[in-house]
Write a structure and sequence with these properties.
By secondary structure, the chain is mainly α. It has one domain. About 70% of the residues lie in helices and about 0% in strands. The protein has 9 helices and 2 strands, in the order αααααααβααβ. The protein has a two-stranded antiparallel sheet. The radius of gyration is 20 Å and the shape is globular. Pfam families: DUF7530. Keywords: Membrane, Transmembrane, Transmembrane helix.
Length: about 250
Amino acid sequence: MAKVEFGETWVYESIVSALPGVDVSKPLAIAIQLVAFQVGVTLVWWVYEFPTETLLAGTAAVVVATLGSIEMLRISRLVRAERLPDSYGRLLFGSSIEVVLAVLAFVALVTYLFTTGTSDAPSLLERLFGEEPPVVAVYLTLLVLWDVCYRIGTAWWAAVVALWRSVRFRFDEPTARALRRADLEVVAFSTAQLILVPFVRDQPVIVAVIVGHVVAVWVVAGLSVALVTARAETADGATADANAAARE
């Protein structure tokens, strides 16, 4: 497969390959991400003697971010292995809309974290880190939460673009099969985020947002799977292109 150029990748993929003097494989980059975040979470928990729930919540967030990295690479590999319309690839990888969605989600989350909580019902930060959270703990928490929000934004954008692709284009059966698998990877990608729900069970707004996001991705990606399957062309179909025929 030809080398993927910048502008044809998700921001996450660009960062992995853009560091000067650093040449690591994508699996190794994921392993480094997992170890670095998990060591940081464990050290903060140990040094500040936080409750066990804090360690478990931090570990869950690290796992979600890492699974997101794995799924992003799996989805991109499936998509790039097929001959697909350029407009689909540009929208999915080169638009950076997933970053915009991630920023909106992150700002909303930070606003919620720092504006909720009363003497009778402490905020999530107070429950995990006490009334005066250490600066290092807050910094690491926000860093990990940004990574999680980026995965959420990517899952949503991948689902939306997949539905647009399935409505606008028709593919032969082998290509449709690969795209179905990519769409199901998006579903798995979002479903992994439910790991966080037990740790925010007393925060109904956050629970509703996570569950609502996952259900929305299921619906949108599910529609894409149904459409790409129903519109798949057989080998003897009269099409203008053997792999993808655009229906403008």
